[in-house]
Amino acid sequence: MSTEQQSSQSDTGVSTRKRIRAATLLRTATSEISTVAMTLEAAVQEIRLLREEQQQLRATFDVFLCQRDGEICRMDRNLQPHNNQLSPSINRAFVDMGANNEGENNVRSRLGFKLDEV
Question: What domain of life is recorded for the organism (predicted)?
Answer without folding.
Answer: Eukaryota
